[in-house]
Amino acid sequence: MLDNQTKVRNKYHYRIRNIILQAITLFLIWLIFSGKYDAMHVSFGVIAVTLVILMNYRLSKVNLFPERGEPNVPIKIYRLPAYILWLVKEIFLANLQVAYLVIHPKMPIKPTLLTFRTKLPSASAKVILGNSITITPGTLTIDIEHNKFLVHCLIPKSAGSLESGDMQSRIMRLFQDDLKDSVYEFKYLKGEYTKEENG
Amino acid sequence: MALHDIIGSIFLLSGAFLVLIGSIGVVRFPDFFTRTHASGKCDTLGLALVLLGLAIHEGGTLNTVKLILIAVFIGIANPTATHALARAAFKLGIKPLLSTSKEEKQNDLAD
């Protein structure tokens, strides 16, 4: 077990590192969008970045999900590019499929609801999964409750990478090496969706 | 005509085509959720392609970087907005229209 002092120091270092990273990113974005590099415009940028960081620092102390007590597992940034490439490929293929469905004269859609549970380590991991599902054409995250996802899809085929757990385990890999329980209790809902099934 | 003009035009045209398909989908699809699919998804890739096409047209200037940053922003903001819309509709009690084709019903009865 970590003793308390190291824990506090680690947290402090983590925070300082985050603030520096944030300042560099924000300032780079300012420089790109401003496009003017004389002293006046750059100093405006410094002031703006300082203000944003002050506001964000106060926000970072607010726990957005207090009742769940979810740990803050840091993302492994070096694994992100491979995931984004895979996601772009998926988006492209799925978009062609949806375009085909739209212009097909008979419009062979089979709207389906499905639910699954997944053991992702943190709230931000769930946000990444929810957004990835929604950005892939043909699937749409309707609701996330604890670790249960409710997804609407145009045809069941477009949920293929969700059913096999491919997308979930790829997102888990961004945070940890252990891929246990990446997807379980996967099922298609039949007929009317009722509130009881959501419980 | 330079090569990057041709490639940029191909990106622009395919992006515009996807946005058109998305709009057709909004008209053709039967209910709220399927329409959200059409408007939210095709637009994400369509707009990204249009912006990338413009970036290629622009060549290697600062505007290229700006356009790519805008494309990244849309890639994050658009699914978030789509999810917010769908969730709000679902919480308000709009029932998704589910598949009711004949063979599906027979499968349901067989289960």
Description:
The complex is a heterodimer of chains A (199) and B (111). Chain A folds into 2 domains: 4-60; 77-198, no CATH class. Chain A is 52% helix and 13% strand. Chain A contains 6 helices and 4 strands. Chain A has helices at residues 4-34, 39-60, 80-103, 123-135, 160-163, 166-175; strands spanning 112-117, 139-145, 148-153, 184-189. In chain A, helix 1 runs antiparallel to helix 2 (39-60) and helix 4 (123-135) packs antiparallel against helix 6 (166-175). The longest helix of chain A has 31 residues, at 4-34. Chain A starts with a helix and ends in a 10-residue tail after the last strand. Residues 194-199 of chain A have low confidence and may be disordered. Chain B has one domain. Chain B has 4 helices and no strands. In chain B, helix 1 packs antiparallel against helix 2 (32-58). Chain B is elongated and about 55 Å long. The mean pLDDT of chain B is 82. The interface between A and B is large, with 39 and 42 residues.
The helix tally of chain A amounts to 6
Query: Can you count the helices of chain B?
Result: 4
Rough shape of chain B?
Answer: elongated
Radius of gyration of chain A equals 21 Å
Largest interface (CB within 8 Å) is between: A-B, 39 and 42 residues
User: What is the overall pLDDT average of chain B?
Assistant: 82
Order of helices and strands of chain B: HHHH
